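Lab notebook, bench 4. Still working through the backlog of constructs that have no structural model yet. Next entry is a single chain of 472 residues. Request: give me the C-alpha cells for it.
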Amino acid sequence: MSLRFPVALASIAVLSSVTTAVHADSTLRPDQLAYRELFRELVETNTTLSSGSCTLAADRMAARLRKAGMPEKDIHLFAVPEHPKEGGLVAVLPGTDASAKPILLLAHIDVVEAKREDWTRDPFTLVEENGYFYARGVADDKAMASIWVDTLVRFLQQGYKPRRTVKMALTCGEETSGAFNGAEYLSTQQRELIDAAFALNEGAWGTLDDQGRRVMITVQAGEKASQNYRLEVRNPGGHSSRPVKDNAIYRLANGLIRLSQYDFPIHLNDTTREYFTRMADIKGGDLGAAMRALVKDPTDARAVATVTADPTWNAMLRTTCVATMMEAGHATNALPQRAQANVNCRVHPVESFEDVRQALVRIVADPAIEVTKLETRGPQAKAPPLTPEILRPIEQIAARIYPGVPLLPLFQAGATDAQFLGAAGIPTYGIGVLFFEPDLGGVHGLNERIRVQSLYEGRDFLYDLVKAYANQ
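Model written out:
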C-alpha cells in the first residue's frame, strides 16, 4: 500500500491551539441545540449488556429519523429472538445515481459497564461541566453514533439528495466478546442491506498535547484482533494445614509473572512505517531520532526500548497479552484445586491466534499450566487501502477546519467492528477528528469524557465529510 499525504498537511511547524469557546445553551446554533438533545437521549439510554438495551436505543434513533421524514421502508430495525435487547438499526438515504456504490456509516451503541458507586457523576446522566461532557459512552462510541444519526436528520430536513446512497448501521455487541454482535450479523446474514464501497467507523482519534493543542488527526487503516486465552492449573489440593510446594495458585502466578516480563516481537507494516516516520518530525529530538531508527531497523534494541516506553506506541508495534481476570481456590482452609486466569491478547495481523497460544505455552514455561484459546470474536481484520478517494476529502476539510494540523495513518492497537465488515468485502476506515487528551478521555474507565468543543467541531467535520463522499 502506498500512503501519500499533502505537504500542506504534513507541515508541523506550528501546532494550532484549541481556542476557548463557550458552549452554554444560549450560545449554540439551533442545529447544535437539536444535536445536543439527540446526543443526550442516546447517552442516557443505558446500553450495557447487563442492564441496558441497545434495542431501545435503536428504536429511539429510528423515531428521530421518522420525525425528520425518512420513510418506513428505509428504516430497518433488527434483533434476534435469543438477544431481544441487543438489536440495532440500519437506515438508508437513497442516492440519485444507481451506478454509484453506497457509503456506510457504522457505529456501535453498546457501552462498557459502569458502576454508579465508582463514578463521580451518574454514568448514565449527561453532565456538561468545565468544558466537558461526562457519561459512559460520550466518547466510545455514542459521539460518533449520534453524529451519524444527526447527519441523516439534517440531510432529510434540508431535502438533500446525495449522488451516492448513504447507509447507516448502529449495532450492539462491540464491547463484549460472546455478545450478539450486530456488525457480524449484518455482514453475514444481511450483507446486501449494508453493501457499500467503503464504511466510516470509530477506531481513530485526534490527539491533544498536555497544553490542549491539537497535535494530529488520524485515519485508521488496519487493526489488531482481540483474543482471550484461559491459563489454568489443576491439582488434587488438600488441607491448608499441610501445605505443599505444588500449589495451583503459585504455579499460575509464576507463569503470569513470566508473561509480564515478556515482549512479543516488533512488526512494522505500511501504516506504522508511515506513522512513525511522520511522528518523528512531530516529536523531534531524541524521541524522533529513535522513531527514525526504529523504522530503518526494527531490531535496533535502543530505538525499540525508547519508542515502546509509551504504551500506545508499544501496542501499535507488537502483539500484547495481559492478565485481566483471576479465579482460584474453593475454601479458605483448603489448598487450591484449581487456579485460572484470563489473558487478553491483542494480536498483530502477521500472527495467528494459534501462533499466540503456542507462544503463551512457551512463555509460561510450565506443563502444569494449560493454555486454551477461548471463543474467537471474529476474523482478523484486513487493512484497507488508503486511496485518494478516501484521503482527499479528509485532507481538504482538515485544511479548512484544522489548518496546519497534520493527518497521519493509524494502525489501531485495539479492535473494532471493522474486522467483520472487512471480511465481508467492505473496506472500513476509522476517522479520527474528535480530539482527546493523551488518556483518550478515560474511555472504558471512570468518568469518561469528551471536550464539548471537540464534539461540536467533530460533528461539523463529519457532516461535511459524509456530504463530500456522498457527492463523489
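Notes after review: The chain has a mean pLDDT of 93. The first helix runs from residue 7 to 10. Flag for follow-up if needed.
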